[in-house]
Amino acid sequence: MNPKLKEKIQESISSVLPITAIVLLLATFIVPISASTITLFLAGALLLVIGMGMFQLGAEMAMSPLGERMGEHLSKTSKLMIILIISFVLGAVATIAEPDLQVLANQVPSIPNSTLIITVSIGVGLMLATAMARILFHIRLSNILLFLYLLLILVSIAAPASFLSVAFDAGGVTTGPITVPFIMAIGVGLSSMRSDQNAGDDSFGLVSICSTGPILAVVILGIFYHPENAFYTPTEIPNIETMRDVTKELAGTLPQYLIEVLVSLFPILAVFFIFQLLAHSYNKRQLIRMSIGFLYTYLGLALFLCGVNVGFAPVGSILGAGIASSSFKWFLIPIGMLIGYYIVKAEPAVHVLNRQVEEVTGGTITAAAMNRCLSIGISISVGLSILRVLTGLSLYWVILPGYVIALILSRMVPQIFVGIAFDAGGVASGPMTTTFLLPLAMGACEAIGGNVMSDAFGIVALVAMTPLIAVQLMGLVYKIKQNHRADPFITDEQDQDEIIMDEENKQLIYQRTDSPITKGEVKND
């Protein structure tokens, strides 16, 4: 086995094992689940581990290098209109390639699938062009996020109540395993060609801006289509009795995902082919390596989606319904929080984000620290989502205060933390959220007779919201700790401190503008 692939699979095992153990304990002591369903779940977990390992290696070999190289070429283009048009096309193409968008489109029967997909892809394309313009014109990230979220809140007031949760979920769903590595790499490539002090900050923030596009697009679409009858199709539990049935179920479903992922990846492959044809950016050896990387990405994502959809989704629905219908339904909140804490580590795009954060910051913000922040944030998200399911609390009462807090924090913390935090929100809400946590909430909602559209939906939106607060709080704590040192080097703008990039070593340097430090005095924490 490829040593690098073996390493990625070992990382996947450590990510998936905790959530698998939690489900098995719940199935043993709280909600009885048939041995056949558990067998299907374990088979799905095995596919998930292999698929996640292959996908991570593929993204590292192909998706990220392609995005970075394209970002570098865009930075060399002097014509603004060309940059904006190419950014729009890249954003739209990457979104059409997102498998989770197909899932969302199938759950909104009152709007044709093609109409929804095209509208959402246009929204992401426009936002990616906006993100590029922000970098080129050096607009503060927190300012543009404040404008976009205020616009989003105003527009959402006119949306049908039964469709609002779906619209907010769209923002998290469309920034998934295909879109995130590609878009984030474009930002890294674009900023790597700059030597100014804001280059490190601007390498993040593209995903955060792009994630507002689908929400705005779906809200506007909902206003015009009036989708009052929109509903979510409940997860179907296959009839499994023997190991042969398990094998037959997986073997019968896998070709569907192989075709789906191939169709999804085709636009990215077309972009890769056209880019190489025009720019001649890669030599023969690099082309072979990237081709192998795309193959890993293709097979890994197909195995991952098959595993989570066939093995995880039915179990999530059964657990939610079983606990909610018992006399211990309120225990579903801490159980959901525990599942949320560990499930984020099984999201493939999260690993891509954490790796890029650690690389760009030179280890100042470690992958372990990011994992802890995201785990805590998602844990709170799931707890709030289950509380909404059990009480019928409106999504607005949770999401509006959350975004207000996040936007206030964005004015108080170093800008690089703002970009990382808002990117993390889009990254954390991936396939595991839509195929396990959403069925968990749906099963509980159906068991207590709630409104699935207004109460169960919204969990993806909350999962995308809480990392915004968690990561920025990490930045705020970090800033306060540095301010209390004998020689503080992170303060607010009034103290004229800066966060700059050491381009040679790719590390963050903190220096006071009134008393700059030399490279030999660089401080890393």
List key phrases describing it:
single chain, 525 residues, 2 strands, 74% helix, globular
Oligomer: single chain
Average pLDDT across residues? 80
Count of DSSP helices? 21
Secondary structure: helix percent: over 70%
Biggest β-sheet description: 2 strands, antiparallel
Described by the principal axes of the CA atoms, the overall outline is: globular
End-to-end distance: 36 Å
Structural class of the secondary elements?
A: mainly alpha
Sequence of strands across the biggest β-sheet: 1-2
Describe the structure.
It is built from 21 helices and two strands. The protein is an all-alpha fold and 525 residues long. Helix 1 (3-29) runs antiparallel to helix 14 (332-343) and helix 7 packs across helix 21 (459-483). The protein is globular. The model is unreliable at 486-525 (pLDDT under 50).
Topology:
Blueprint lengths: L2 H27 L5 H41 L4 H17 L2 H8 L6 H24 L4 H16 L4 H13 L5 H14 L6 H4 L3 H5 L1 H14 L17 H37 L4 H41 L7 H12 L4 H13 L6 H25 L4 H14 L5 H14 L2 H17 L4 H5 L2 H25 L13 E6 L4 E6 L13
Antiparallel strand pairs: 1-2
Q: Brief overview, please?
A:
By secondary structure, the chain is mainly alpha-helical. 74% of the residues lie in helices and 2% in strands.
